[in-house]
Amino acid sequence: MTHPAPSRPPGPLHSLNRHKERGSTERAALDAILDDVLAGTLSTVVDGEPWVVPMLFARQGDRILLHGSTGAGALRHVAAGAPAALAVISVDALVVGHTTFDSSANYRSAVVRGALTPLSDDERPAALDALSERILPGRNAEVRPMTRQEQAKTLVMALPITDDGFMVKTRTGTASAPDEETDAWHGVVELRTVALEPQPAPTSSAAKVPESVREFAAARVLA
């Protein structure tokens, strides 16, 4: 069953009611978040019930590539054109206010809405390579290519990025100045995602950690 392309009526799903100054529809802001964050949550409605699943993704120009098993019924549902949304977020700091009410977080977030399109057999190999390169650059050259059987078991979809199909929201800065007398500490605790030393699997007989893994980990060492 196919679904009509979703329209975008005005309303709370497509605009911010609070802290509108934190919102943006700048494409550069969206690209920066999508190119930095590795995973997001894909959401839709299946048989009247909400459905949300975390997924790795890759931005490729004006589209977002996602993949999963062809045996996943909900993925087939969105691949048929059901309206969907991909949400990504990076929490960059805890903002500790002088009260719990005034506490918050610094973050970068984005929601991209639209209809996903399954890629053809001809497009699938290059798209899977692009996903791998986005997640672990250089790994494709270190291992054998995916077999036809492996490709046939993998559903690859593209979510187009349109000018009116996304919203970016961010918060930066320190804690708000107290509006009352207080001696409570307030400020910011920055957060970072770091890579630890690569650990080989028990079945790995390779003598050295491959270059792709070394470079991935080195780029995420806490300075």
Automatic annotation (TrEMBL):
InterPro entries: Pyridox_Oxase-rel, Split_barrel_FMN-bd. SUPFAM superfamilies: FMN-binding split barrel. Residues 1-12 have a biased composition (Pro residues). Residues 1-24 are annotated as: Disordered. It comes from the Bacteria. This is Pyridoxamine 5'-phosphate oxidase. It comes from Knoellia subterranea KCTC 19937.
